Amino acid sequence: QSPVSVPPLSNEAAVRVLQGRMKGIQGHCNSCYMDAALFSLFSCTSVLDSMLFKPFPVCDRNVQRILREEIVNPLRKTGFVRAGSVMHLREQLTEKGQCSSFTNAEKDPEEFLNLIMHQILGIEPLLRLQSGGQEQDCYCYQIFMDKQEDLVVPDVQQLVEHSFLSSDLKLVEIPSCFIIQMPRFGKEYKMFSKIIPSLELDITDLLLDSPRECCLCGDLATLECS
C-alpha cells in the first residue's frame, strides 16, 4: 500500500516504470476486464483522479481509499499491482453491487465502470450522446460495428468513426473524458487480432452541430453526407 499520492507516469518515466516482466496489474481469477480498465484509466493520465480524492455526494470512502492506496499509487510508483489488491476491490464491489460474481467471473468492463462510477462514487456521466433525436448519458462508449473487410488492422480513429456512423450517433458536447471500449475482449471471439492505438482522436465529425468546412470549396458546410 502507498498512502502518498503519486502523479501519473509520462514519457520516459512511463517506459522505465511500466515496461518489462512483473509489471502492470497481476491477473487472477478472471480479473482481466478490471485490470485493463484500471490500467487505462490511471497509469498515465490524471483526467479521472477526482475518483481518487473528491468527496462525491454518495461516495464510498473505503472503496475510494482502496482504489487510491492499493492500486493507483503502487501502479504509478513501482509499475506493479498485486492480484490481492484488485481482489480486495472486487470484494467491495461484490458487497456494494448486489452481484456475487465480481470476485470470480469475467465481466463486461462497462458493467464495472457503471458500478464504481455511478453507484459507488456518484460521479456525473462523462458522455452525452444523441441518436435519433434522443439523448443519453453514459460513462463509456462501447464500439459496436459489423465486420469491415477493408479493416484488417484498424486504428482507434477508424473504429470510432465507423461505429458512430453505423449507429447514427453524435456527441452532444466535447466530453471531459472519452472512455472507449474496443471490440477486442472476451474469451471466445475477437473481431480484430490487433488494434493500433490512435495517440490523438479527432472528434470534429462526431460532434452534433459542430461547424465544419465544406470538403469541396472550403467554406462553412451546410449539408452533411454520411
Largest sheet: 3 strands, antiparallel
Approximate shape: globular
The side-by-side strand order for the widest beta sheet comes to 4-3-6
Number of strands: 7
SSE order in H/E notation? Answer: HEHHHEHHEEEHEE
Query: What's the N-to-C terminus distance?
Result: 51 Å
Count of helical regions: 7
Proportion of residues in extended strands: 5-15%
Question: Taking Cα atoms only, what radius of gyration do you get, to the nearest Å?
Answer: 19 Å
Indicate the percent of residues in helices: 25-40%
Tell me the number of structural domains: 2
- State the low-pLDDT regions, or none: none
Structural class: alpha/beta
Mean pLDDT figure: 90
GO molecular function: cysteine-type deubiquitinase activity
Organism: Rhinopomastus cyanomelas (Common scimitarbill)
Domain Peptidase C19 ubiquitin carboxyl-terminal hydrolase: 24-203
Protein name: CYLD hydrolase
Write a structural description.
It is globular, with a radius of gyration of 19 Å. A 3-stranded antiparallel β-sheet has the order 4-3-6. It has a two-stranded parallel ribbon with strand order 1-2. It has 2 domains: 14-120, no CATH class; 124-225, no CATH class. It contains 7 helices and 7 strands. By secondary structure, it is α/β, with parallel strands linked by helices. Helix 4 (61-78) packs antiparallel against helix 5 (83-97). It has helices at 11-18, 32-42, 50-53, 61-78, 83-97, 109-120, 156-166, and strands spanning 24-25, 80-81, 127-131, 134-138, 141-142, 169-171, 180-181. The N and C termini lie far apart (51 Å). Residues 24-203 form the Peptidase C19 ubiquitin carboxyl-terminal hydrolase domain. It is found in: Cytoplasm, Cytoskeleton, Spindle. Keywords: Cytoplasm, Hydrolase, Microtubule.
